[in-house]
Specification:
The protein is an alpha+beta fold. It is built from 1 helix and 7 strands; from the N terminus they run ββββαβββ. It has a 3-stranded antiparallel β-sheet with strand order 6-5-7. A two-stranded antiparallel sheet has the order 1-2. Strands 3-4 form a two-stranded antiparallel ribbon. The chain is rod-shaped.
């Protein structure tokens, strides 16, 4: 018995199609060769996307590393400009210290 592949349009024997239980004829809609080619293309597309994402991550890391060298981070009270640890300002008591940055020397 022959079946026409929906992707390449060629009529092939049922053995050239993967099994599929929920299909009316019990076979996939595309032949094994077309399915294999599609999977290769999909793999290559995903590989390119992953490489692009990895490149973006590396660029962001480089920018962050550069920023960390350019600036020093510290906690500062917005009310009295006291520099200290994270938490409440010891001078103002009710003011919460905020993260600030300045140019590194």
């Amino acid at each position: 018995m022959l079946k026409k592949c929906s992707r390449c349009g060629l009529s092939k024997p049922l053995q050239m199609y993967h099994k599929r239980k929920d299909s009316t004829d019990g076979r996939q809609w595309q032949c094994k060769q077309c399915a294999s080619e599609y999977q290769r293309q999909l793999y290559a597309k995903r590989k390119k996307k992953q490489a692009r994402q990895q490149q973006q991550i590396e660029q962001q890391k480089a920018i962050l590393h550069f920023e960390q060298q350019q600036y020093s981070y510290y906690y500062e009270c917005p009310g009295c400009s006291f520099e200290g640890d994270q938490g409440q300002c010891p001078r103002c008591v009710n003011t919460t210290m905020t993260l600030a940055k300045r140019m590194a020397i």
